[in-house]
Design a protein that fits this description.
With about 120 residues, the protein is mostly helical. It has one domain. The chain has three helices and no strands. Helix 1 packs antiparallel against helix 2 and helix 2 runs antiparallel to helix 3. It starts with a helix and ends with a helix. The relative contact order is 0.12.
């Protein structure tokens, strides 16, 4: 990787971190209120799901860039595209699994709040 490419990736890394910090704040996600009509609750749950998923994917991309830059610095070049593709797919599956777990616990806490 050339120094210019490394510099550009570092700039993108900084921007992605700022975006992730903005997207990952649950207080800025769509709020679900128990007194909303069912249709609006469904819409809000869908929005929250995608907002969490987008934040998670931003972090996955940021992680890949950081790992790529670290690997390129260590080896003095880029790793193979096939290995990167396999690793990216594995990272995506792991990130999606985390989002599903977090959404499941969020839904569970919402159900518990309604029951109270």
């Amino acid at each position: 990787m050339t120094p210019l490419q490394n510099k550009k990736l570092a700039a993108i890394e900084g921007k992605l971190l700022d975006v992730f910090l903005e997207e990952a704040d649950p207080d800025k996600w769509t709020q679900i209120k128990a007194d909303d009509p069912v249709k609006e609750q469904q819409f809000a749950r869908g929005n929250r799901y995608w907002q969490a998923k987008v934040a998670n994917q931003t972090m996955a991309l940021l992680t890949r860039i950081v790992a790529y830059r670290a690997k390129s610095t260590e080896t003095g070049g880029a790793s193979s595209a096939v290995d990167d593709d396999k690793q990216m797919k594995a990272d995506m599956k792991a990130a999606e699994k985390k989002v599903k777990e977090r959404l499941g616990s969020a839904r569970l806490s919402l159900v518990k709040k309604r029951a109270v």
